[in-house]
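Structure first, sequence second, as always.
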């Protein structure tokens, strides 16, 4: 029966047979992922209980949004989960880039320097920082930038970090996930060491972590090890697929206060910001996030094993420990990237009949092809893939609200590559 349904969805016998052999070897990995999900699920439930979440928290507010108990309680839930003093979690934070830009611009002043110690930051941050000149960048406000590359093995270059820190260094940024790069993702343990190192040189330097795609992948978060701010998007892991918009910053009282004053206005800070009826999805999404992240992780592990077996370079490797939900596969040709993305699109519950094509997306420096048939537009905790059309022609695959959907997506991608003669089974 199962096979017939797969066939009806366009998956042929050779692909199914190949996949079954791979899956038979993944039981132990999947059990580990489930164990982490259990831990994180309990952590979130405990936070929701301790914050006294009630049905009242789901009420919509409008206008100024004074005394919005839903908003205030949710921010407490995030702070309790990330073990930070405070948090800012809002629909007014439009996306991950906005949350990061907010955290940076709120906590830096003219004459300050920020250093990225994990190499080149995420593409969209280049304009935020002013690495690529842009209207309103930090550079326009006389905030300077320095960058320390990771070592060839992907670890932090501690000596270079020490040399880069100057009297005006105010903030150090660490990007947990590889983003659109083929470097390894940093583990929480590695980030903890880097934070401790920076603090040992100058405890007043703000350590900020771009936490995008990393939330709930491990049992602990960078904020458990002294990071002053963790920052991310609600249309990724912590939104659990239900949040229709939003970003968060969890961190120290001072950092969050500055961010709130920057987001709304000096003097108003966290006190305003109506929630317009999105609160239930924020809470319920956060509640589901640990198991949704686990589904996405299983998809990533499965994809790594499938494509490594077929001879492609995959990052992380099939057997490697993983620290985010992104799986990169280097196809080496635009055709491979495009076929993979077509397969992901064809597996979607929404927009499965459209064909994705490369285009010049705002904020990116090359054409990008994106596959997503998502309930929330552009959501990348939902099954999605994107590939910049430039060497090494790698596709970045992530998400999957449920494991069966993630599995179908990978089978569809494989089917497409197989039909186009790009792989042999
Ligand atoms: C997605 C992502 C961002 C930006 O988030 P958007 O919501 O796309 O603006 C920043 N950093 C990393 C590592 C990301 O993965």
């Amino acid at each position: 029966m199962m096979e017939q349904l797969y066939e009806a969805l366009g998956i042929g016998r050779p692909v199914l047979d190949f996949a079954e052999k791979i899956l038979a070897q993944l039981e132990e990995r999947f059990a580990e992922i489930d164990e982490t999900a259990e831990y994180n699920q309990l952590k979130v439930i405990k936070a929701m209980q301790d914050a006294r979440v009630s049905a009242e928290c789901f009420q919509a507010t409008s206008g100024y949004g004074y005394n919005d108990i839903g908003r205030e309680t949710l921010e407490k839930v995030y702070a309790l989960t990330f073990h930070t003093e405070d948090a800012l979690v809002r629909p007014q934070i439009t996306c991950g880039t906005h949350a990061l830009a907010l955290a940076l611009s709120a906590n830096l002043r003219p004459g300050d320097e920020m250093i990225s110690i994990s190499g080149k930051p995420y593409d969209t941050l280049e304009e935020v920082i002013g690495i690529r000149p842009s209207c309103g960048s930090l550079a326009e406000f006389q905030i300077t930038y320095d960058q320390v590359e990771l070592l060839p093995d992907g670890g932090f270059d501690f000596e270079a970090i020490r040399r880069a820190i100057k009297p005006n260094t105010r903030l150090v940024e660490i990007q947990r996930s590889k983003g659109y790069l083929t470097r390894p993702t940093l583990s929480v343990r590695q980030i903890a060491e880097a934070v401790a190192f920076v603090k040992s040189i100058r405890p007043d330097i703000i350590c900020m972590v771009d936490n995008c795609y990393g939330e709930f992948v491990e049992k602990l978060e960078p904020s458990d090890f002294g990071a002053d701010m963790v920052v991310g998007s609600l249309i990724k892991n912590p939104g659990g697929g239900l949040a229709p918009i939003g970003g968060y910053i969890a961190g120290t009282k001072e950092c969050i206060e500055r961010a709130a004053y920057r987001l709304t206005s000096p003097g108003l800070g966290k006190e305003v910001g109506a929630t317009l009826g999105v609160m239930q999805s924020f809470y319920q999404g956060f509640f589901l996030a640990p198991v949704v992240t686990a589904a996405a992780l299983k998809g990533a592990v499965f994809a790594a094993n499938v494509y490594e077996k077929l001879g492609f370079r995959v990052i992380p490797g099939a057997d490697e420990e993983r620290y985010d939900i992104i799986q990169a596969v280097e196809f080496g040709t635009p055709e491979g990237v495009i076929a993979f993305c077509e397969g992901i699109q064809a597996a979607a519950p929404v927009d499965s009949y459209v064909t994705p094509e490369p285009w010049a997306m705002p904020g990116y420096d090359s054409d990008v092809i994106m596959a997503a048939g998502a309930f929330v537009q552009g959501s990348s905790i939902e099954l999605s893939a994107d590939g910049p059309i430039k060497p090494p022609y790698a596709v970045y695959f992530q998400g999957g609200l449920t494991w069966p959907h993630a599995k179908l997506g990978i089978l569809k991608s494989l089917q497409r590559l197989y039909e186009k003669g790009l792989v042999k089974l």
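Margin note: The first strand starts at residue 86 and ends at 90.
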